[in-house]
Amino acid sequence: MIKTIIIEDEKPAARKLERMLANYAHLELVATLNSVEEAVVWLNENQHPQLIFSDIVLGDGLSFDIFEKVATKAFIIYTTAFDQYTLKAFKLNSIDYLLKPIMEEDLTKAIEKFKSFLPEDGAVNSQEIKQMLKKETSILSRILVKIGYNLKIVQTSEISCFFSENKIVYLQTSERNFPTDFTLDELENVLDKKDFFRVNRQYIIHSKFIRNIHTSPYFKVELDHQPDEEITVSRDRVKDFKNWLSS
């Protein structure tokens, strides 16, 4: 039996997942936890399971906070309505990432993926799993940002650029800019390369919002919505930039 826990703050979603997991005879659900705080306490006081199903955005924080406070060898299947955390999830023992509403077919595939890395003795072959995860990518389609005590969903199609300032990466829309939890290096891996291009160390731009391109004395891009400072294309990126524009 594979000992399993659920971390989910929405009771209807937790009950639905409990019912779905009951159909898998080889899974033993040992706890359903509702918050970061409750999960930290439980994991500190109990033997860790082999598999965790966890929502990401909980009422008292992100579930990533749990695994930064409590080291675990359990593998995690994240269940969430937001796909912006894919990259970070794969860095924290994630075996899969399911977007809500969870479909039975997707759940089965995720569980089978986990089982395929279990030797007969039931031990997790973590090195093989981590090698597999390095090869997995997902294109980011929307980002969750915080505005005070509120949350806002921003579609990447609405973002004219990402830029770094004082070690924080912001996204820019027609409305304003918003801070994100990403680095530009991380964004390069998860943004659609047909739409986005990193023109220099500080900026990633969206082709849809390019208003003008100056080529003399250097390449400079003007966007429909951008911060006050000018956006230049690094000399070593000019060739790739022109190829991107024509592709």
General description of the model:
- The chain is of the alpha/beta class.
- The protein is built from eight helices and 17 strands.
- A five-stranded parallel beta sheet has the order 2-1-3-6-7. It has a five-stranded antiparallel beta sheet with strand order 12-11-10-14-13, with no helix packed on it. Strands 15-16-17 form a three-stranded antiparallel beta sheet, with no helix packed on it.
List its salient traits:
17 strands, 31% strand, five-stranded antiparallel beta sheet, 247 residues, five-stranded parallel beta sheet, single chain, elongated, alpha/beta
Low-confidence stretches: 121-130, 132-137
Mean pLDDT level = 86
Number of helices: 8
First and last CA, distance: 51 Å
Tell me how many strands there are: 17
Computed CA radius of gyration, to the nearest angstrom: 21 Å
DSSP helix fraction = 25-40%
Content-based structural category: alpha/beta
Order of helices and strands: EHEHEEEHEHEHHEEEEEHEEEEEH
β-strand amount: 25-35%
Give the spatial strand order of the biggest sheet. 2-1-3-6-7
Biggest sheet overview: 5 strands, parallel
The best one-word shape is: elongated
